[in-house]
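Researcher: Please translate sequence to structure tokens.
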Amino acid sequence: MQVIEGDALSVDAASLVPEPRQIIANLPYNIASPLLVGWLRHAASFERLTLMFQQEVAERICAEPNTSAYGRLSVLTQWTCTARIIMRLPPEAFTPPPKVSSAVVSLTPHAVQPDPALFSRMEALTAAAFGQRRKMLRGSLRGLGGEALLARAGIEPERRAETLSVAEFDRLLGVVG
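Model: Translation complete:
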């Protein structure tokens, strides 16, 4: 075993070990989401990721459309991976016990992955769409083309981001200029 000292947000995890690669980690909750997004950018490099998150974050990762937990993290994760919660842990499972419950999420990357430029475009699209959750898409996506963009994708402009499926976000991404 080798211990690598460094900033977890800047380490290229895929370069540390040969294929097939897996990441199994109990993540620091304060940087778990940025770590996950960084690994999702390179999901093709991994066979599987088994990660412990604060339960609320795990539920957002695996959330379905039309739920309060569904958001940008749900779309980015499910666009690149199959995600499921495989274990829930109460605070008492740890010493000292944290103030929150935890959950372990299994992520299996899809066989086909977006290239880095396309992933960046999806990040921008989801950031705009979910930036003001209660806004209709015609308003939240105004800077990306608004109603014309939505019409090209066949999506009603009165809908809100949390009602779009991952497939609809992918379709929308395909028409973003």
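Researcher: Any highlights?
Model: The longest strand covers residues 81-89.
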